[in-house]
Amino acid sequence: MARRHQAMSVRLKNFINGQWVDPEGGRYREDVDPANGAVLAEVPASTAADAGRAIAAAAEAFSAWRQVPGPKRGELLFEAGRLLQARKSALAEKMTREMGKVLLETAGDVQEGIDMAFYMAGEGRRSFGYTTPSELPDKFAMAMRDPIGVAGIITPWNFPMAIPTWKIFPALVAGNTVVFKPATEAPYLAYELVSILQEAGFPPGVVNLVFGSGTEVGEVLLTDPRVALISFTGSNQTGRHVAAVAGAGLKRVSLELGGKNAIIVLDDADLDLAVEGILWSAYGTTGQRCTACSRLIVQEGVYDRLRDRLVERIGQLRLGHGLAPGTDVGPLINRAAVEKVQQYVAWGREEGARLEIGGGMPTDPELGTGHFYLPTLFSEVGSNMRIAQEEIFGPVLSMIRVKTLSEAVAVNNQVAYGLSSSLFTANVNAAFRAIRDLATGIVYINAGTTGAEIHLPFGGTRGTGNGHREAGTAALDFFAEWKAVYVDYSGRLQRAQIDT
Asked: Among 5, 386, 388, 485, which has the highest number of CB atoms less than 10 A from its own CB?
């Protein structure tokens, strides 16, 4: 594919122990706009040595940072949130250039970071423990949170501001130090985020940033004994590797590993509302969300009408650069993503699904230098087909026909993932049955599968992760240890559970 280059505007550096430094090996890679191939920056291709230096700085800073009072740590996050708020528009524009989604969505991505900053800043004063009566007289009992140590933060490219802040901000407010390795496809927003944290006043060594690949940098975070915990968002396959390697060192590990999310539409649903929710969930961010809807489970009485409405609306979606007015769908992240989507479309056809619309790359020459793919809809999909079981991470939606709510719930639950699900219905009884029976970490009623709010726990079941949750106060449970404290003021030895 042809690529239009523009002059590189910046060469990024790693951030280690409060200083912006070049990678030891002197190697760099290009950061490009997936919509047109324009070069945005040169980014360090760091080595294990760079990662080791960052870990050493974080380990040294931990002892002092853990003793900074929680409210003071929160004040620094408040300042970071203020800076993010002031620069929201510029950050959103840069994000659109770097990873492709439309400006409306990148502004929302930055807003999540702002919300998380202010929320977690408040947790500096609210990281509550609890007291409880002791079973013995003249004895006080309480539980409190303790920071753990160096947190290795490994993030994906599709939410390059929101997801890092979901991880970094609770880690910091809990008293941990951080080594942050962002995805190679979206480094510039990581640079901007860490620059803001530096400006907000976080001490040297508390936040460190190392650009580079998983094999060069990520592997060091998994194996270095000075790193106490790993928070990772990415593919299920890579997550299994993270769990195996980091687990061998008894590190605490949090995994968020994607989804195969479904919207269920019952015969009594508001179809106008359902269509809007489906389009946003399936084709927003070009389907490149862990919460994207890639399965549409439809009761047979409304199946044909919903299919026809969707075909009409999908045909009206406009592809283009995310900064261009009127663009609905931006590019996929890279050529490999286009090839993966194309392969799944081929498998869908081979297995007998009916391609209703899309199924290829656009012919518009204006889009020829970007990684674009037409929004795609399959109907008459069997629930066991590959396109109905495996995460595609692209703009491909599969319609599955069912007779009852019970059948719809069973189809929803039969995939390997369990992140998000949705039900459109006017029946309150059906809604509550679905809430009870849908085996996902997130359930929406009369809305799509995407749109998490930062004060509620985020995560899923089965292949979506390993049980931890991000966001809300649940995030602090991962980034802190519980410590039980007993104060005996009886003046004599009292032995719990021992008969006297």
From this structure: 388
